[in-house]
Each structure stands twice: as C-alpha cells, then as structure tokens.
Amino acid sequence: DSGVTQTPKHLITATGQRVTLRCSPRSGDLSVYWYQQSLDQGLQFLIQYYNGEERAKGNILERFSAQQFPDLHSELNLSSLELGDSALYFCASSPGQNEKLFFGSGTQLSVL
Amino acid sequence: GQSLEQPSEVTAVEGAIVQINCTYQTSGFYGLSWYQQHDGGAPTFLSYNALDGLEETGRFSSFLSRSDSYGYLLLQELQMKDSASYFCAVREGSSNYQLIWGAGTKLIIKP
C-alpha cells in the first residue's frame, strides 16, 4: 500500500459527460501529480500541484482541470468526455519534487 | 528535444540475469529513476541514481553514467513475479525538476 488513495477505482460514463477523480496523498506529502495511461502505453504527465499551487503542466487538455485543496487532497475534472479519454488515471504524491513518487492504484475511466 | 530510449520488450528465463538499458537526452540532469508496473497495477518506485555508479537493493541494481547519458536496471535471479513493465525516468532541471519518462520495457520471463 503506497498510502495514496484514489477514488473511484472504476468509472463508466458516456461521451460528453463530466467526471471528477479524487486523490488523497500520503500523509506529509506536499506534491500531487496526475498521470494518464492509455492501454499498453506509457505514463503521460498531466499536471502537478505543490502545497496548493500549480507547479507544472504537462500534456493536459483544456477540457481537463485540476486543483489541490488546503487539506492537500486533489481533484482532476474531466469534461466533454470523448472515447479517447478512456484510460487509467493515476495520482501520485511525493514529499518534494519528483525524487520519489508514490502512486495510487488508479481510476479506470471508460467512456462509452 | 528531450527523450529517453529503452527497449520495448525484453525476454529472459527464470533464474537468469537481465539488464534493461536507458539512454537519455535531456536539458539538465538531476537523477535517473526506475519504476516497476505490473499489468493493471500502479507504478512502484525501484531506485534513484543521482551520482555515477551502481546502487544495489536486493536482487535489483541500478547503474548510472552521466558522461554517457546512460543507465541500466539489472535484475538478478529472475522470478516469474518480475514479469512487468519497467520505466526509466529522468529528473531534469530545465523545467522545475520535472520527470521525463521512457516508454517502458515489457519484461517477459519464461520458465
């Protein structure tokens, strides 16, 4: 158990809909990262927050947004969903800046 | 541009030794990490090399040569449970110590 909690584990929705993925980092970790992994693909970095502020952006679509709350949990919002958004979405946390990431078990999103 | 190269697939026999290579081209370099991911599972951290040389953790070792922009993960006494994908990632400094990820190496172990 990495100590990072992601909910829900599975999500099935339709095209055009909006969903919210939730992540609670390990106790004490200030950085939260979101990654997308399509079937048999690598890890695509989406966005990072550090202590409530956006720290870095990767290949995140404009339809996607995220935030980190004062209690350090984070949410990833995906809107106007398309079939191609179906993927495994991981949240990870670290004490600082990318030296060692702890990944949650992921949210499997299926857009039908 | 920034890139990491690692083989897409490696096959080895149970009990043997296997080496997964990673070459990188990045703007700035702070360290090379390795992560393991089983099918359907989450990536888990294996090692982080910031300095040249070999670091050993049980059956796994990781090596870094900064002058050659090269590193490898060495797995000894292979077990069937080592069948997984292995990702290398460079912590680079041009954009806030971000991680640049390789595409992953699928390790297939045969009995």
Walkthrough of the structure:
The complex is a heterodimer of chains A (112) and B (111). With 112 residues, chain A is an all-beta fold. Chain A has strands at residues 5-7, 10-13, 19-24, 31-37, 44-50, 53-57, 64-68, 74-78, 87-94, 102-103, 107-111. Chain A is globular, with a radius of gyration of 13 Å. Chains A and B meet through strand 10 of A and strand 4 and strand 5 of B.
**Helix and strand pattern of chain B:** EEEEEEEEEEE
Overall pLDDT confidence of chain B: 93
Strand content of chain B: over 45%
**Which blocks of ≥5 consecutive residues of chain B have pLDDT under 50?**
none
Radius of gyration of chain A, Cα only, in angstroms?
13 Å
How many strands, which pairing sense, and closed or not: the largest β-sheet of chain B? Answer: 6 strands, mixed
The Rg value of chain B, from CA coordinates, equals: 14 Å
SS field, number of helical segments of chain B: 0
Task: Determine the fraction of residues in helical runs of chain B and give it as a percent range.
Answer: under 10%
- One letter per element, helices H and strands E, the order of chain A comes to EEEEEEEEEEE
Helix count of chain A equals 0
Give the low-confidence spans of chain A.
Answer: none
End-to-end Cα distance of chain B: 40 Å
Quaternary structure type: heterodimer
Mean pLDDT across the residues of chain A is 94
Strand content of chain A: over 45%
Shape descriptor of chain B reads globular
Topology:
The complex is a heterodimer of chains A (112) and B (111).
Chain A: E1 5-7, E2 10-13, E3 19-24, E4 31-37, E5 44-50, E6 53-57, E7 64-68, E8 74-78, E9 87-94, E10 102-103, E11 107-111
Parallel strand pairs in A: 2-11
Antiparallel strand pairs in A: 1-3, 3-8, 4-5, 4-9, 5-6, 7-8, 9-10, 9-11
Chain B: E1 3-5, E2 9-13, E3 18-25, E4 31-37, E5 44-49, E6 53-57, E7 60-65, E8 70-75, E9 84-91, E10 99-101, E11 105-110
Parallel strand pairs in B: 2-11
Antiparallel strand pairs in B: 1-3, 3-8, 4-5, 4-9, 6-7, 7-8, 9-10, 9-11
